[in-house]
Specification:
Chain lengths: ~450, ~160
């Protein structure tokens, strides 16, 4: 016992001396770090400008609120109530009176200042270690004023990265399927929003059924399934221009599309005569390659981040299981061997894990396993949930969950949820309508 | 102590109720299901008099049951008589499976119906296949009977 204690102290002491505050994201965080997000102070000469350009009286507070909500949603931070702050934003940004912030138990402090320079929004912010009484980071950036929410997300990413040692996931977007109407005749539209639910926008009108949108690596293109003219085919959509096109010339249903990690290919299933196999199509030269050739259902393909391997779903053993193969279709190996059925494998951005949906004894689970199938860990159990998608830093999964209907078949809903890889911090993701099939973008900045 | 007793009794009553209702529903289901294949007529429509439009499947299966084969033979006879008619076979799955797998499963179900029609002399030119996966249930219930109605291949006139 004594010896173990001693070793732990030895490890903690030097790291504390060097790295100041640190947040451990590798396990469920039951003691989120108390942090004070001071409203960003507004430059006096710019006050009028903000009111006319953005129609906002206190843009500094609103940006701070974006940061605060992000930090809280991460589960790693406990943003303190602003009413308890003793120091004014402008003075705090110059030099915080650390005793005051210490008094309200803040361990870290974010301050900042916004102004308008040549019709652009200029934001500077600082991160302070309250206990050590030191500045940890100071950054400034300039953008168009309408981008003010993104500024809040970028600040959160920088703070998260400084305190956890890993990239953040806040300046990102979610593409998903917006749902409305009765369960037997659902109207589905493609929709896109910021990771925190703001700036929601519909990309299709709902005239045809659309499913499973997924971003390309730069998050400017989306591949999805559309039932346009009652022909279920994989499509490509440019988010900025709205241009759509069918992917490949297949004589039957194509579905389950995803991009390759370099964005140059789309991998998908093609179903014909009762058999689904996996194909890739090169977007530049339009060359189609057949990757699997088996009379079973092969679907839900997902590339490893290095592009060398493909995880997919097959029922060649008799039931839905997860398999891995090389990117040319060779060396097919089953990796899921637990009890139940397994589907929707998705390779993590770090490459070490595969997220999946599992059905066992009437319950659905979202879980992760190593790429050789070992170390299976179930994160959440529910009546129905599926389709995990990774945050770009591989720390959070977003998925959708459907409710059981009552005896009259009513009470159906579909919502997006997120959960940390640790299995903690399960959260409802706000969407203006019912929602399913989420896909998380890459980090938009940097 | 008294409260404890009341609670205990209340608990026993609820358990009894639950058991009874469970019995009642399972009896109802077995009346319309064989194994977990739907055998009722609630959702069935008719292409012509005596020609049902749909066949049903067991969970995760695309194998045709004896009843399904009988239905499809009737459809084949009707199609032979009406040689100008073309059809779409719409394959469906229940809500208890992942979306993408269900799309493939719906396609496989519709194709097993198509194959059977072809063995009874209907040209593949007259049959197209469309899978909806779990996107278009007929019964919005979340129970085994509703799911059995939704695991289906429906023959729809296309012209």
């Amino acid at each position: 016992m004594l010896r173990i204690l001693f070793i732990i102290i030895l490890i903690i002491l030097p790291s504390k001396a060097i790295a100041l505050i640190e947040v451990d994201i590798t396990r469920g965080n039951l003691n989120p770090l108390p942090i004070a997000v001071s409203p960003l102070s507004i430059d006096e000469n710019s006050r009028k400008g903000f009111e006319t350009i953005l129609n906002k009286k206190n843009i500094g507070s609103e940006i701070a609120l974006v940061v605060e909500k992000n930090l809280k949603a991460s589960g790693l931070f406990n943003p303190l109530n602003k009413d308890s702050f003793l120091q004014d934003p402008d003075i705090a940004n110059l030099k915080p009176r650390f005793e005051d912030w210490n008094l309200i138990k803040a361990q870290a402090l974010i301050t900042g200042k916004v102004k308008i320079v040549d019709d652009k929004l200029r934001v500077e912010f600082r991160l302070w270690d309250v206990l050590a009484g030191k500045e940890m980071m100071a950054l400034a950036f300039t953008t168009v004023p309408n981008n003010w929410r993104r500024v809040g997300h970028i600040i959160t990413d920088k703070v998260y990265e400084r305190l956890t040692g890993e990239k953040g996931y806040f300046d990102t977007r979610i593409i998903y399927v917006s749902e409305a109407g009765p369960k037997t005749r659902r109207i589905k539209k493609l929709a896109i929003m910021d990771q925190d639910g703001a700036n929601n926008k519909f990309l299709t009108l709902g005239n045809e059924l659309v499913l499973t949108p997924r971003f390309n690596p730069t998050s400017q293109m989306v591949t999805y399934l559309s039932y346009f003219k009652n022909l279920p085919r994989v499509y490509l959509l440019d988010i900025e221009t709205g241009m759509q096109e069918v992917v490949g010339d297949f004589p039957g249903m194509t579905f389950a599309p995803r991009f390759s990690p370099d964005g140059k290919k789309i991998i998908m299933s093609f179903a014909k005569d009762g058999n689904s196999d996996i194909y890739t199509m090169d977007l530049e030269n339009r060359i189609v390659e057949k990757i699997t050739n088996h009379p079973s259902i092969d679907t839900s393909p997902s590339f490893s981040p290095d592009g060398k391997y493909i995880a997919f779903n097959s029922d060649r053993s008799g039931y839905q299981q997860i398999y891995i193969m090389k990117n040319d279709g060779k060396n097919v190996k089953r990796i899921s061997f637990g009890k139940g059925l397994y589907g929707t494998p998705v390779w993590s951005p770090r490459g070490d894990l595969i997220a999946f949906t599992k059905l066992h004894k009437g319950k659905f689970y979202i879980g992760v396993m190593r790429t050789d199938g070992s170390g299976e860990r179930l994160l959440t159990e529910n009546f129905y949930q599926e389709a995990p998608s990774w945050s770009p830093n591989g720390r959070v999964l977003i998925f959708y969950r459907e409710t059981k209907t009552d005896s009259k078949g009513e009470g159906f809903s579909a919502k997006l949820w997120s959960i940390d890889l640790t299995g903690y911090n399960e959260r409802l993701v706000n969407t203006p309508t019912d929602a399913s099939d989420p896909s998380w973008s890459s980090l938009l900045s940097n | 102590m008294k409260l404890n007793k009341i609670l205990k009794n209340a608990f026993l009553v609820t358990v009894a109720c639950l058991m009874m209702s469970a019995c009642a529903t399972s009896k109802k289901s077995t009346g319309q299901m064989q194994g977990d294949v739907y055998t009722g007529k609630d959702t069935v429509e008719y292409l012509a008099s005596g020609v049902p439009d749909r066949v049903f499947f067991a969970t995760n299966e695309s194998v045709l049951t004896t009843a399904s084969r009988e239905t499809l033979r009737k459809q084949a006879a009707w199609l032979r008589k009406n040689s100008k008619i073309t059809v779409v076979l719409e394959g469906h799955a229940d809500e208890r499976g992942t979306r993408e797998y269900n799309l493939a499963l719906g396609e496989r179900r519709a194709n097993s119906a198509k194959d059977y029609l072809m063995t009874y002399g209907i040209s593949s030119d007259r049959i197209s296949v469309l899978s909806y996966g779990k996107e278009r249930p007929v019964d919005s219930g979340s129970n085994p009977l509703a799911w059995s109605k939704n695991r289906r291949s429906v023959t729809v006139k296309a012209n």
